[in-house]
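For this section, I looked closely at the sequence of one protein beside the tokens encoding its backbone, which the following lines show:
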Amino acid sequence: MKRIVAILLAAGVVGLSLAACAKPVSPAGPLAAEDSVVEEEAAEAPPLDEAATPGETDEYEIKTTEDGVRYIVDPEKIVSGGPPKDGIPAIDNPKYISLAEADGWIADNELVLTISYKGVVRVYPLQIMVWHEIVNDVIAGDPILITY
């Protein structure tokens, strides 16, 4: 398990180094010719007094609600796509097991988040983090927030 943590930390450093050295992708996409430049004219919104009146039907035109809010997508048609507020419970009092116990259910190639802080090393398996996303922890007396 220690070897996996060291490999993951090294992979993260290499990944960050590569990202810092990477060429930016053209706005036209990664397959655009290197010397091509894509320009788009910015569409200016009409002044408020010239904006569409409530109820107009042009699909792509800027419309205005009765209270003056301008929109393209009708706010009444926007729905939530995820869990409600506080629908993903944080882990507030994490419990830890020994490395030997963890080797019984964490595979050698499993992804984990790790932190080494003031001489304390903690491992947070992603198979748990994908369900909770946040761990409120205390390490060496300091509150620490782990998020995924």
Confidence is low (pLDDT under 50) at residues 4-40. Residues 87-148 form one domain. The chain has three helices and six strands. The two ends are 21 Å apart (CA to CA).
